[in-house]
Amino acid sequence: MSSSPNAPDGAKARPVQRAAPSLSIVVPCFNEEAALPALLARLDRLVADLSAAGRVAGPVEVILVDDGSSDRTWQVICAASRAHRVTGLRLSRNHGHQRALLAGLMQASSDVVVSMDADLQDDPGVVAQMLDAYRDGAEIVYGVRKSRAADTAFKRFSARSYYWLMRKMGVDLLPDHADFRLISRKALRALGEFGETNLFLRGLIRQLGFASAVVGYDRAPRSAGESKYPLRKMLSFALEGVTSFSVQPLRLITGAGFFIAGLSFLYVCYSVLAWATGRTVPGWASTVLPIYLLGGLHLIALGVIGEYVGKIYQETKRRPRFIVDEIVQPEPGQERAGN
Ligand code: UDP
Ligand code: MG
């Protein structure tokens, strides 16, 4: 385990270790019927190990959020509610990964909550280390993938470029961290204060502050089914990250405006000089090119501004970020195997 810059400093007055916390695990699921059996079996094992090692207090609450799936995900979750003692939360429609995750986080009732994907790409084996970091004083523990060997070259390149761009835009993101993390009750309460409709949790959680730690893990290939993030969705999520946390694009437009205005001033000087020395050539290119160039720049600028205005529009409506249709809870009294 390595630590981030604001990690609790273990060398100096090491705080007294906290007691083992109660744990909730939140998993958003969108059309994951194929991946759920392996996930449930792995979570059973994880819970049994954590309980046996005394790393968690009381029964572990597992919350599976069905994000409006069109396959049999909800039926699988309902059956698992009985057989695997999990809580099922069914959203009224597909709200998107981030909102489904938030719905699960808000439902969780334990001291700490670990969120992970349904496809076992996030290694449940490192949850023990996350809990240790919490007991050492961290309020947030980020799961960071150690390598991107399992990714395609395109995904590796686009991820690297994205983190570079975000850094340039002044957005605080932890590279190679997605939504595999532990959050304490205190941090969760603070997260609840952010009422944003446009959710980009990995950026939002960085804004919370608090002592944090980092746990490295190897990201496995998807256990079953296919990615719910096609290129189009990935791009829109990336844009969400930029426009939710940075006004740098607006500044770039201003910069481009000044630059072009400066160029045209030089052009005016040149034209006056040309007129004075009688070297005027009736020019087609010099008339038409600026029209296209400026027209294009105007449209880009309008698009960027529109992106932010649209965001303001969405935020002012203050619509609920998710709507829960149904909750199934394991019957009280029965203990999960391993607890
Ligand atoms: N997911 C969701 N709603 C969506 C899209 C995805 O709840 O609209 C869930 C999905 O079931 C998975 C997690 O979000 O548990 C991450 O999705 P995925 O693994 O497909 O993304 P990738 O790892 O390919 O980026
Ligand atoms: Mg995945």
Kindly describe this structure.
By secondary structure, this protein is of the alpha/beta class. 46% of the residues lie in helices and 14% in strands. The chain has ten helices and eight strands. An eight-stranded mixed sheet has the order 7-5-6-4-1-2-3-8, sandwiched between helices. The longest helix has 33 residues, at 285-317. The radius of gyration is 25 Å and the shape is elongated. The model is unreliable at 1-12 (pLDDT under 50). It binds uridine-5'-diphosphate and magnesium ion (MG). Uridine-5'-diphosphate (UDP) binds at residues 28-30, 32, 67, 94, 96-97, 100, 117-119, 121, 227-229.
Please give a quick description of this structure:
This protein has helices at residues 36-52, 73-83, 97-107, 127-135, 153-168, 185-192, 201-207, 231-245, 248-276, 285-317; strands at 23-29, 61-66, 86-91, 112-115, 140-145, 177-184, 212-217, 324-328. The chain is of the alpha/beta class and 339 residues long. Strands 7-5-6-4-1-2-3-8 form an eight-stranded mixed β-sheet, with helices on both faces.
